[in-house]
Amino acid sequence: MAFKKFDQPGGGFRPREMVKGNWKCADCGTEITELPFEPAADRPIYCRDCWAKRRAERPRRF
User: Fold this and answer.
1) 34 domain residue, yes or no
2) 40 lies in a domain?
3) Would you say 53 and 47 are in contact if contact means Cβ atoms under 8 Å apart?
4) Alpha-carbon gap, residue 53 to 50, rounded angstroms
5) Of the four, 6, 36, 46, 47, which is 20 to 30 A from 18 by CA?
6) What is the pLDDT of residues 4-24, one digit of tens each?
7) DSSP strands (E only) in 1-62
């Protein structure tokens, strides 16, 4: 398990590399030009607002 190193600038974490492309949100159709991951072709992609809305509506698991 990796632990956060507090003595390093930025807390020991590197900024995520963004993947550039042209996608559309599966809910609202907003254009998406950057993602923090390489999307799978068989899965929907959501904009930041729709992703937050979907997460809020999802039942929490304990």
Assistant:
1) yes
2) yes
3) no
4) 5
5) 6
6) 555 555 566 778 899 999 999
7) 19-24, 31-35
